[in-house]
Structures are given as C-alpha cells and as structure tokens.
Design a protein that fits this description.
Protein name: AcrR family transcriptional regulator
Distance between the termini: 73 Å
GO molecular function: DNA-binding transcription factor activity; transcription cis-regulatory region binding
Pfam family, one: TetR_N
CATH superfamily of one domain: Tetracycline Repressor, domain 2
Helix content: over 70%
Shape: elongated
Organism: Pseudonocardia alni (Amycolata alni)
CATH class of one domain: Mainly Alpha
Radius of gyration: 20 Å
Number of helices: 9
CATH topology of one domain: Tetracycline Repressor, domain 2
Structural class: mainly alpha
Number of strands: 0
Largest sheet: none
Keywords: DNA-binding, Transcription, Transcription regulation
Order of helices and strands: HHHHHHHHH
Strand content: under 5%
CATH architecture of one domain: Orthogonal Bundle
Length: about 200
C-alpha cells in the first residue's frame, strides 16, 4: 500500500520546518560534520526539499539559522525591555531575564550562535548578529546613562553594552540547561547595576 501523500505546506512553514531541523543538527553535529542528509532525516523531508527551502547549500542554510536565532533573541530582549515600566533597573532586569529565558528555551539555537558557528566559515555572520544585539543594548542604555560633557555618548554606552552582553553570554554558558532565568538575571544585575547607577542621569 502506497504511503499517504505528504501534506503541502506554505513555503514559510516548510522553511521553518527545515530551519528547526537544521538548528538541531548543527547544534548536535557542528557545521563541518553536519550533512544535508541528516537535516532531511531530522525534518522528515527529502534532501531536494531541504535544498529548496534551505537556501540551496549547507552554508546558506547555516546562515539562515544564524539570522533567525539572532533575530529571535534580539526581539525577545527588546520586547521585554520596551514593555517594562519606566524604572531603568526594572527594564534592565527584564531584558536580561528575557535573554536567559530565550537561551534556555532555544538551547540548540544558542549553541549554533555562540558555539558551533563563532569560529567557522560564517563567523562574520555571527559577529554581525552579536553587533546588532550590542547596538540595541547600547540604545537602551543611552536613555539612562550620562556621558561626560563633550564626549560622544556612544563611546560610553557601546563598551558597557559589549561588556554586559559578554557577561550574559558567559553566564548562560556556565549555567547550561539548568539555569533559572530569574536567578541568572538577578546575579548579573547585582554585579553591573551598582556601577551603572553611578552613570545614570
């Protein structure tokens, strides 16, 4: 008896299916050892469909995974901070909590962004994604921090944002799968907020 025909999905849903599978495979196997056959098996699709909906090559598929995961992380942090009350401390805590929650929920995506792809062929893509996150954090800080007179505020907020992002990344890696987002955010806040408070308007 012939198997039932595969249900046709809109292209966007099929692409999501491929990217979801690819993130799991890249996280598990790394870029060099991952194969399009493995992605096809993980997705339950034929390899030609993976090529069609994944950009046509393994490199492009990883690039799309990086962009999606970084966009998701950025949207999570930005949304939490923007939707918080006016108090800067609360906004920062909620932004950090959203970061740690996103990393915990999408652990495979985090692995692709900050472990598997950082030193590979698409390291520049990861660097660009991280720069977007740092720039967004710097924008959030710029509304609260006061630069010395005559100093470009970006020269104050950007290094602080980069340090904050690096600390959050390191803490997320240290915590692994067992970290509680609230506890991790509170831990980092206890380290950075006293210094940030000195620079507030």
């Amino acid at each position: 008896m012939a198997p039932p025909p595969r249900r046709r999905l809109p292209p966007a849903q099929r692409e999501k299916q491929v990217l979801d599978a690819a993130v799991r495979v890249f996280s598990r196997d790394g870029f060099h050892d991952a194969s399009m056959d493995a992605v096809a098996d993980e997705a339950g699709l034929s390899k030609p469909m993976v090529y069609t909906h994944g950009g046509g090559s393994k490199e492009e598929l990883l690039r799309r995974c990086i962009r999606r995961e970084s966009d998701r992380l950025l949207e999570s942090v930005s949304g939490a901070a923007a939707g918080a009350p006016a108090d800067a401390e609360v906004r920062l805590h909620r932004g950090l909590r959203a970061f740690f929650a996103s990393v915990t929920i999408h652990r495979d995506g985090w692995s692709v962004l900050y472990r598997q792809a950082r030193t590979g062929a698409l390291a520049d893509e990861v660097h660009a994604a991280r720069t977007r996150i740092v720039d967004r954090v710097a924008q959030l800080l710029a509304a609260e921090l006061v630069a010395p007179e005559g100093i470009d505020p970006a020269t104050v907020t950007t290094p602080i944002a980069a340090a904050l992002a690096g600390a959050a990344e390191g803490l997320a890696d240290w915590a692994g799968d067992g970290g509680d987002p609230d506890d991790l955010a509170s831990t980092l806040m206890s380290l950075v907020w006293p210094g940030l408070a000195l620079l507030r308007s």
